[in-house]
Amino acid sequence: MEGIINYIGVACSALSLILDIVAVAIPNWISDSPVHYGLWKICFSDACFDISDIFSLKHLQEPDYLKATRALLIIGLIMLAAAIVVAVLKMFVMKDNSFLSSGAAGSAIAGGLLILVGAIIFAVKEIKESDLTADTLSSGFALAIVSGAIAILAGILFFIGKNN
């Protein structure tokens, strides 16, 4: 049973990692027709531009919450990758080292929490500082939330796999 739970934990971590990569990359965190934007790009109908270029044209700096969201999601992504590496090491190389299960679990849970916090910061600041509503939150935000939840589930599975 221990092996199966750890395999499921690695699969959940990998799925969460993929979802987080897509969430960071796509320009669909906010969709307010005809404009939609994400962490890096803003699109007007079919034309997309770097967010940093838009702020540079106006002689402004990018908002701190946007930088924080990017950082939290990318650090969460790195922690998920570390959880996968540590779990695979535990499963195939250092089978007797129970500390590795704790490391994989902690890394996955921490990564998931960072992703969730980053997504929540973005949503709260966007809704609070503009005329947008929660209805304008789009697929990038949803993917980040799902990614964080799955990462936490993976961490719990690693802890269960350690105790069996």
Write the layout of secondary structure elements.
Blueprint: H1 2-25, E1 30-32, E2 35-37, E3 41-44, E4 47-50, H2 51-57, H3 64-92, H4 99-128, H5 139-163
Antiparallel strand pairs: 1-2, 2-3, 3-4
Main location: membrane
GO cellular component, one term: membrane
Pfam family, one: PMP22_Claudin
Key words describing this protein structure:
single chain; about 160 residues; alpha+beta; Butyryl-CoA Dehydrogenase, subunit A, domain 3; 4-stranded antiparallel beta sheet; 5 helices; 4 strands
Kindly summarize this structure in a few lines.
The protein has 164 residues and is an alpha+beta fold.
Would you write up a description of this structure?
- The protein has 164 residues and is an alpha+beta fold.
- The protein has a single domain, classed as Butyryl-CoA Dehydrogenase, subunit A, domain 3 (Up-down Bundle), CATH 1.20.140.150.
- Helix content is 70%, strand content 9%.
- The protein has helices at residues 2-25, 51-57, 64-92, 99-128, 139-163, and strands at residues 30-32, 35-37, 41-44, 47-50.
- Helix 1 runs antiparallel to helix 5 (139-163) and helix 4 packs antiparallel against helix 5 (139-163).
- The relative contact order is 0.21.
